[in-house]
Specification:
The protein has a domain at about 60-150. α3 runs antiparallel to α4 (about 95-125) and α3 (about 60-85) packs across α5 (about 135-150). It has 5 helices and no strands. The chain is mainly α. The protein has helices spanning about 1-20, 45-50, 60-85, 95-125, 135-150. The longest helix has about 30 residues, at about 95-125. About 10% of the residues are buried.
């Protein structure tokens, strides 16, 4: 096999040296990536129309929803943490600390729900490279606390 590959490489180098690739159509122009070569040709028009209208395949929309819900839950958690942090040393400290504990529990429940959705989503994606890792709620809670302290 290696012998054939080196013969092929040699033929290509000789053709380049003779200038046989100099006048190819599209030389120096950007590659057109608007069409997916792996897309079913029968569905190409339908997919183009959906893309033009702002729609994406269901698995992509699901991913966007998961990311948006995680971001919203994280923002809510950060807001409650800032309130709890600012209430330290005041008469509202106990109430704020209780809200923080409840917000942390609610966030962990949300993460569990999102991880179930991610598990199902990973089965829908067309290739393993699109799969998403599960969310570590504990790390996010720690990150929220560290960011607020900075």
């Amino acid at each position: 096999m290696k012998r054939w590959e080196s013969l092929i490489d040699q033929k290509i180098r000789e053709a380049i040296a003779r200038g046989e690739f100099d006048d190819l159509p599209g030389k120096g122009e950007p590659i057109d990536l608007t069409e997916n070569p792996f897309e079913d040709p029968e569905l190409r028009l339908a997919h183009r129309m959906l893309r033009s209208a702002g729609f994406a395949p269901a698995w992509i929309e699901e991913r966007k929803d998961i990311v948006a819900e995680l971001a919203a839950a994280r923002n809510d958690l950060a807001r409650v943490w800032k309130i709890a942090k600012n209430a330290r040393g005041t008469g509202q400290e106990d109430s704020a600390e209780e809200r923080w504990k409840q917000a942390s529990l609610d966030f962990q429940r949300k993460v569990e729900e999102l991880n179930r959705r991610i598990k199902a989503w990973n089965l829908k994606v067309p290739a393993a490279g699109f799969q998403q890792e599960r969310i570590d709620g504990g790390k996010i809670i720690e990150a929220v606390q560290v960011e607020a302290n900075s």
